[in-house]
Amino acid sequence: MDITAIIEKYDARVPRYTSYPTAPHFSPAVDAGVYGGWLAALPENAVLSLYLHVPFCAQLCWYCGCHTTAVNKPEPVESYADTLLTEIDTVARAIGRKLRVKHVHWGGGTPTVMPPKRMAEIMDRLRARFTFEPDAEIAVEIDPRTATEDVLDGLVRMGCNRASLGVQDFDPKVQQAVNRVQSWDLTRSVADALRARGIGSINVDLMYGLPHQTAEGTVETVGRALDLNPDRIAVFGYAHVPWMKKQQLLLPEDALPGQMERWAQLQVTERVITARGYRAIGLDHYALPDDHLSTALDSESLRRNFQGYTTDQAPVLVGFGASSIGSLPEGYVQNAAALPEWRDKVRAGELPTKRGIALNAEDRLRRDVIEQLMCQGRVNIASIARRHGADPATLRAAEPRLQAMADDGVVDWDGSTVSIRPEARPFVRTVAAVFDTYLKPDQAKHARVV
Question: Which of 357, 385, 411 is the last residue of a domain?
Answer without folding.
Answer: 357
